[in-house]
Design a protein that fits this description.
mainly alpha
Length: 251
């Protein structure tokens, strides 16, 4: 006999008001888990590479704003598909957040991330901004087909350049990244792409999308794909640590 389900606690009026606050809705629409993990990962990489604390902080803030930008852009592009998939947990789909409001804050994020990125140096800033452009284009062009992995690989492969060239101030001029670290970062991007796609596989399959994670899941099953991708990412991160301690980040 199945165990009785535990009743969910009803939200208090104060909690409901809090969840409807625009800043809270914007954070939810920014894909906060991915944004924080990416910003934290690059900040740790900057610290390990010997960057000063203020430079590590600049990297963290820049990447956090950039990732929020990508998350908001993703929700705007996917609004119609998300409605079809009944993803009512997304503020834009539920109607709690208006499209115009999200578009306004997306424009503000663009205006903020450009000077933030260039504050690490022109070459570093352009490398990071190019990764954002690749991400925005990927949201629109390749994400539902067999080339869905490509924007993720390119964007992640640009991260070592952002860190290697970076410093403090627009005049900072570092060195090019090593090829080994660039390739490893690109491979990590493919793994992250698969991991971030796993939650939506059922909806994507129903809608007829055939990106790489779905193709793999149909072959090996989603639970096994989760385990295999986790192992793949762990191996790539381990390889990056070895490359960092031997070949290094910069040439």
């Amino acid at each position: 006999m199945p165990a009785p389900s535990t009743p969910q606690r009803a939200s208090s009026p104060r909690e409901r008001r809090f969840k409807r606050l625009t800043p809270v809705l914007l954070v939810r629409a920014a894909h906060p888990r991915q944004a924080v993990l990416t910003a934290l990962g690059l900040a740790i990489a900057a610290a390990v590479s010997g960057r000063a604390p203020r430079e590590v902080g600049l990297v963290a803030v820049t990447v956090l704003v950039g990732q929020a930008l990508l998350g908001w852009d993703n929700d705007l592009v996917d609004e119609k598909a998300d409605r079809a998939d009944q993803r009512d947990t997304k503020p834009l789909v539920s109607g709690a957040l208006e499209r115009g409001t999200l578009g306004f804050w997306l424009a503000c994020a663009v205006l903020l991330v450009v000077p933030l990125a260039l504050s690490s140096g022109i070459n570093a800033g352009l490398s990071y901004l190019l990764s954002l452009v690749v991400g925005v284009l990927g949201n629109r062009l390749l994400r539902t087909g067999r080339w869905s992995w490509l924007p993720w690989a390119i964007a992640f492969a640009l991260y070592p350049a952002y860190l290697s060239y970076g410093g403090w101030g627009g005049g900072a001029d570092g060195n090019p990244p090593t090829i080994a670290m660039t390739v490893a970062a690109g491979l990590l991007g493919i793994g992250v792409h698969v991991l971030t796609s796993l939650r939506g596989l059922v909806d994507d399959n129903r809608a007829g999308r055939r990106h790489v994670p779905l193709r793999l899941a149909l072959r090996v099953g989603a639970p096994r794909l989760l385990v295999l991708t986790g192992l793949y990412c762990a191996l790539v991160i381990g390889a990056m640590l070895v490359v960092g301690s031997t070949v290094g980040l910069s040439r």
